[in-house]
Amino acid sequence: MLSLLKTVAQNGLSESVVRRAITLLAFTIPASLINLLFTYVAAHKLEPDEFGIFYAAITAINILFAPAVIFNLLFSRYVSTLYAESGSDAARHSHFIVLSTTLRWLSAFTFVGLAAVVILGVIGGFFSAQLAMVVIIIVATSYFAECGRIFLQGEHRFLTLGIYTLIWMSGRLVFGTIGLWVFGTVWSGLAGVVFAAPVVFFLFFGLKPLISKPAKIPDLLPPNLSELVPFAIGYAIFAAVAHADIIVAYLMLDPYQLGVYSASSVLPKGILMLTLPIIQLAFPLMVDNRVKETPGMSVMVKGFLLTSVVAASGVIVAIIFRETVCASRYGFNSCDIPTMIYAAVAMIPFVLVRFLISVDYSAHRDWVPGLLIVPLCIFVGLNLNKPLDSQGLATLFLIFSFIVLLLYPALRIAQPLLLRLMPQSP
Fold first, then answer.
1. Which sign does the torsion angle of CA 41, 44, 46, 51 carry?
2. How far apart are the first and last CA of the chain?
3. pLDDT tens across 78-121, in order?
4. How far apart, in whole angstroms, are the C-alpha atoms of residue 285 and residue 299?
5. Which of 219-250 are b and which e, b meaning 16 or more Cβ less than 10 Å from the residue's Cβ?
6. With the C-alpha atoms ordered 391, 392, 395, 400, is the resulting torsion angle positive or negative?
7. Chain segment 23-57, per-residue pLDDT in tens
């Protein structure tokens, strides 16, 4: 282990992983703040009970869009493999194929997702059919816009990737704020977000990727559903684990406490988005190492360490500006400082677990994240009948986060052992 860290240190900051990550973060950190700013605007425009509904809808969008990370990695692996093997021209030939495959999948998933959101809304009595429709349309258009990030990632165009993300989040803020300002309702604010995704995609790529079938079809076949399903399920479970506190809050807290917890969780949950660009950068580089059969441990170690530093920096910023965020006229309405701090610290273990998940995916250990269903069920089950307030829930969630960080490596070790114990088909 010491020799490995020494090798990483000797490579130093000159290696492209860190330099590229800093460049990308220079765009994506402001993009994350802009995305949080929309929630800030909603917190000031809406009443606490309405904001609770708004944040629950945002959480539903985050959970439904969580497999986008796997969708992104799956197709960026496809594009970056073509890029590593045959160069940028071959990678660009894949744009039409990626889009056409995505649109076929979305046509099916949109109906399934809409049905799921409506059913959950009816059961909980929380979402109207109108709001459920807006939620699923936001998710569908966001997957479409994600294709643009896939193209840029796979071709290692990280600077353009940062600009693309910044403009996308800015569009969400502008259109969403217009919706809130004009109509002043939860659904109108979310409806404005729908327009941002197609606008940014067509701004960068135009119609050509949609209507121009490549003259030369890449020899490498695109990913299929059998490759997507196992890891998409696993990552969706991880997203539910990282938002398990919101699930419990929605089920157990009264409307006012739910509003308090939601407002206190806005900045902490943003740390998840803050660290995502490191995975977006490290993963195609790991794929490139695999295709070219070059050592890739340095990329993984640097990515893990950089993820730790960025997440910890986000927590430090939240602590330093806690009074501004929660106790000033410019802060989030109903935000509670201890709740916010506990929820922010809890994000550090989760972003590290997510990086380990991306490493597992690069090694085709697709089913390992699905084992997180065990701690998720335990946490939700144990807290369903407890009298909780916002601070008590945040404290339990903080403890839970470190348990998950310690447990996940054990699950990674146990998974192949469990497979060996399973009866083999003749």
1. positive
2. 42
3. 888 888 877 777 777 788 888 888 888 877 777 776 666 566 55
4. 7
5. eeebeeeebbebbbbbbbbbbbbbbbbbbbbb
6. negative
7. 888 898 898 888 888 888 888 888 777 887 788 78
